[in-house]
Amino acid sequence: MWRYLLAGLVVVLLAAAGWLMFHGEARSDAAVRSDVAPAAMPLAQTQEGEEAPVVLPEAPERSREQKRFDRYDKDRDAKITRDEYLTSRVKAFAKLDLNGDRQLSFDEWSAKTAKRFADADADRSGALTAPEFATTKPKRRARSACACLAAAARDDD
User: Fold this and answer.
1) The whole model's pTM is what?
2) H or E stretch at 43
3) Helix, strand, coil percent content, the chain, rounded in steps of 5
4) Which parts of this chain are annotated as the region Disordered (predicted)?
5) Contact 19, 13 (CB under 8 A)
6) Percent of the chain predicted with pLDDT > 70
7) Where are the domains of the chain?
8) Least buried of 7, 18, 45, 49, by fewest C-beta within 10 Å?
9) Which helix (H) or strand (E) holds 149?
């Protein structure tokens, strides 16, 4: 019974905290800037002779698409040529073309898969049992919601 009471209390506290976050008094950017020590902020003269803080420009954050464009544009001429666009594919092809003849045979293309099969076939029977097949499962990287969760998990260990 006490668990239900504790859970109810937690729900009420969370609701109150949420209400305070959304309905509390927030200070504007101007109010926040006025709290900065005068020595820490540059000043400019206004027409009346008063000193006013100078608002420094901030660099805009580049969009995901701009970053992606910059990764492809190797020579930074604001244009992506066909060669620049295909560079990643050429590198991937070169990794698969084991004999370097610039032609991809089926054996070269399937080499990674064939190696995975051979590694999974522990008894070398030429067929995978259910437990052997389970070892071929792709390994996925765990994604955490934020870096603080990953750091907390490391701290607990």
Assistant:
1) 0.35
2) strand 43-45
3) 55, 5, 45
4) 43-73
5) no
6) 71
7) 64-96, 103-136
8) 49
9) helix 147-156
